[in-house]
Amino acid sequence: MNIITRNCIKKPVYTYEKVQCVAILFILIPGYFIFEMVIVKPTLVKMFEMAVVKHSIHVILSIFCYINVSGNMLMAIATDASSKNNVKDGIYCKFCNRNRSQRSWHCRTCNVCILGRDHHCFFFSTCIGLYNRRYYILFLFYIIISMLYSSYYNYYYVSSKLEEHGFMISVFRIINPLLRFITPEPMSVVDLYVLFFLLNILLLVWITVLFCFHMRNVTRGVTTHESKNISTKRSIGWKNNLLSVFGRRWYFAILWPFIESPLSDFIREETD
Ligand SMILES: [Zn+2]
Ligand SMILES: [Zn+2]
User: Fold this and answer.
1) 108: Cβ–Cβ under 8 A, 6 or more apart, which residues?
2) What is the mean pLDDT of the chain?
3) Domain residues of the chain, as ranges?
4) How much distance in Å is there from the Cα of 96 to the middle of ligand 2?
5) Distance from CA of residue 272 to its chain's centroid?
6) pLDDT at 129 over 50
7) Which ligand is nearest to the CA of 128?
8) Residue 174: other Cβ atoms inside 10 A
9) Ligand in closest contact with the CA of 3
């Protein structure tokens, strides 16, 4: 009865998460990419008088970043991170009604035990565990690269819409709207571009902090949950810790999300 009640409470949250996840993957990320390619890029090609070669390099780099951001997110969601085995001498899970391995945890939102569970990702609407942690971390990495890359050019794009020193004046107007009475130009639609640019920078800072936190955990060989409890740390050396997340073919994995990179055998033995 307890389980049924809990699932009923979690269901609307779970449905909301799924809708949000689809919107991020199929509307927000492609929308951002299309905006950069169709609106920002042609302006900059004219502004910097880019030749065909330089222009083509930017197009290839942009597509590469887009594939890695969307691909890693898609793979993180599509990869089954659950623990299916009934582990002998494991810890009994009353929700799944079977024994789970030592480093697995039950997720009440996904309602399943997750192998090497790190955390439940609200934006991906799935748990990040041993088998999809690689995609989650590389998603964060490529989001940082993409946002740094686009912010650099977005700054020039937004500046092109404003007069000299207009960018800083616009920033002041956004920070304190009362300043519009003393600034030379009234508040306009262009301020919206500056506002989105500033939000972009804030998001970039937040994702960078998140990425550093997760990479620190990966090199120390712990999950988010284990990092709070010193007694459960069991590092196998930073190199092996990295291999246990990115797999034996890490050099391909960091470049292409759809390539297989099997995890080291000692990790399988430890968790299953
Ligand atoms: Zn369970
Ligand atoms: Zn979960």
Assistant:
1) 6, 10, 95
2) 84
3) 2-271
4) 14
5) 27
6) yes
7) 2
8) 18
9) 1
Residue 112 in tokens: 């399943």
Which pLDDT score, from 0 to 100, does residue 180 have? Answer: 61
Q: Per-residue pLDDT tens for 187-225?
A: 667 778 888 888 999 999 999 999 999 999 999 888 888
Percent of the chain with pLDDT over 70: 83
Q: Retrieve residue 26's tokens.
A: 């199929």
CA 87 – ligand 1 centroid, Å? 12
In the chain, the amino acid numbered 133 is: R
Cα of 94 from ligand 1 centre, angstroms: 7
DSSP class of residue 262 equals P
| Maximum CA extent, the chain | 74
Does pLDDT of 74 surpass 60?
Answer: yes
Amino acid sitting at position 146: S
From the CA of 95, the nearest ligand is 1
Q: Which residue is listed with tokens 């700054």?
A: 155
Contact 93, 113 (CB under 8 A): yes
Compute, in angstroms, the gap from residue 110 CA to the centroid of ligand 1: 9
Q: What's the token pair of residue 107?
A: 């997720």
pLDDT at 241: 87
**Residue 232 in this model has a pLDDT that exceeds 60:** no
Distance between CA 104 and CA 129 in Å, rounded? Answer: 9
Q: What is the pLDDT of residues 31-57, one digit of tens each?
A: 999 999 999 998 888 888 888 998 899
Both tokens of residue 178?
């009362």
122 CA → ligand 1 middle, Å: 19
DSSP notation for 58-83:
HHHHHHHHHHHHHHHHHHHHHS--B-
- Cα(268) to ligand 2 centroid in Å equals 21
Check residue 247 and give its pLDDT: 92
